[in-house]
Amino acid sequence: VMVALGIAIIVGLIAGLATKSFIWAAVAGAVVVVFSSLYVSHVASKEKKKFDMQLPDTLNLLSTSLRAGYSVMQAIEAAAQEAPEPTRREFGRAMTEIRLGRPLIDALNDIAIRMESKDFEWAVIAIAIQREVGGNLAEVLQSTAETMMHRNRFRREVKALTAEGRISAWIMALMPVAVLVAIFMINPEYVEPLYTTTIGIVMSVVAVLT
Fold first, then answer.
1. What is the pLDDT of residues 116-161, one digit of tens each?
2. Is 148 buried (19+), middle (13-18) or exposed (0-12) by CB count in 10 A?
3. Could you write out the three-class secondary structure of the chain?
4. Which of 16, 49, 189, 204 could bond 25 through an S-S bridge, CB–CB 3.0 to 4.6 Å?
5. Tens digits of per-residue pLDDT, 65-108?
6. How far apart are CA 199 and CA 24, in angstroms?
7. Cα 116 to the chain's mean position, in Å?
8. Which of 194, 168, 196, 169 shows the shortest CA–CA distance to 180?
């Protein structure tokens, strides 16, 4: 947040000095803040998707560890050591919290909340039930992992089948920007009111933000 605000202030000052306009300085700073927020959201979304894609393998690892005679705690520690990122990081954080006295289920549930993973939330519920009433947790986790693998495969198939429509949507969304750039290169005076008049600047800001 501090880096984004710092860059926004610097860019705003440069834009203000270049255009000698407070409005353009504010617009430049706002654009930097918006793009910084979008970038952070994009990175977070990629991490969450990666966690969900790794989840079937993680549950299989837990199931295999339990079948080998490990306790739930030992199985989670094995996942924290052997799983790829970001699963390793999240399970490592959970193990640290557990060692500091946090209840096991609460620490695991926090992973589901941080990663916004409904699938892992169900796995945590299964672990909680097993700890209270007993049962074959290894088998439950393995069947859950298989279900997730089938669903992930189906999701990828749907994504492939809808690729053409999504690409068309991107083209339609970018076309106005491309047309504006082309007009600016060919006839700059035609689009000059968009950045020299108050109403044009307001329209430009609203267009960028929406």
1. 888 899 889 888 888 788 778 888 888 888 888 888 888 888 888 8
2. buried
3. CHHHHHHHHHHHHHHHHHHCCHHHHHHHHHHHHHHHHHHHHHHHHHHHHHHHHHHHHHHHHHHHHHHCCCCHHHHHHHHHHHCCCCHHHHHHHHHHHHHCCCCHHHHHHHHHHHHCCHHHHHHHHHHHHHHHHCCCHHHHHHHHHHHHHHHHHHHHHHHHHCHHHHHHHHHHHHHHHHHHHHHHHHCHHHHCHHHHCHHHHHHHHHHHHC
4. 16
5. 888 888 888 888 888 888 899 999 999 999 999 999 999 899 99
6. 13
7. 9
8. 194
CB contact at 8 A, 72 and 66? yes
Tell me, yes or no, if the pTM score tops 0.70: no
End-to-end, the C-alpha distance of the chain in Å comes to 22
